[in-house]
């Protein structure tokens, strides 16, 4: 039974930083992504990482501010968020899938419960 557990959300002033963590229990997947959903808005793909090669991809809205990374020994994927803006406020979700390619457009089939990020 695979579980994704996010942590690290919280409240932060604009310009600050937060680091989200997603720990995978059970068998891992080769493509991990971070998504977010703000109230009244559609879910948005934020970043993805191909765990084998470490190749990453980002949404334009977070490029140069957010960094996705992994610690394979800990089965954990991180999202370092810098220069936070109020528009980054959302519930952030970790997702995983086995896939031949890896980006936020892939159909993910494993999801965490989410962690709230609020920027004021």
Give structural notes.
- The protein has 120 residues and is mostly beta strands.
- The chain has strands at 3-7, 10-12, 18-25, 31-37, 44-50, 56-58, 66-71, 76-81, 90-97, 110-111, 115-119.
- Strand 7 and strand 8 form a beta hairpin.
Overview in brief:
With 120 residues, the protein is an all-beta fold.
SS elements, strand count: 11
Helix content: under 10%
Strand content: over 45%
**Low-confidence segments:** none
The arrangement of helices and strands along the chain is EEEEEEEEEEE
Q: Biggest β-sheet: count, sense, barrel?
A: 7 strands, mixed
Q: Give the C-alpha Rg.
A: 13 Å
Number of helices: 0
- Globally, the shape reads globular
Class computed from helices, strands and strand pairing:
mainly beta
* Cα-to-Cα separation, first versus last residue: 37 Å
Mean pLDDT: 96
